[in-house]
Write a structure and sequence with these properties.
By secondary structure, the chain is of the alpha+beta class. Helix content is about 15%, strand content about 35%. Strand 2 and strand 3 form a beta hairpin. The N and C termini lie far apart (about 35 Å).
């Protein structure tokens, strides 16, 4: 089964807004803890494509988490939009 699901991908460091084009289709926010958080609905192929892009750009992957609808935080609750 390859149903798209919501994922949260954390990258070490704060990426500037110019990186947004590299991750088109994903929301990008800066976490106060010093990480960039990418989130969006992805199927398995798209998820692997994002992970390959992160690797190819030399970025440090911190975590990848599948988010259940009950886990979704309200935008801006404790983060800054890029």
């Amino acid at each position: 089964m390859n149903t798209p699901e919501l994922y949260e991908i954390r990258i070490a460091g704060h990426l500037s807004g110019t990186w947004r084009t590299r991750f088109e289709g994903l929301c990008m926010r800066l976490d106060p803890g010093g990480e960039t958080v990418l989130s969006g609905t992805l199927d398995q192929a798209a998820l692997h494509g994002v992970l390959v892009r992160i690797r190819d750009l030399g970025l440090k992957l911190v975590s990848v988490n599948r988010i259940r609808p009950t886990d979704v935080r309200h935008p801006g609750a404790s983060s800054s939009e890029v």
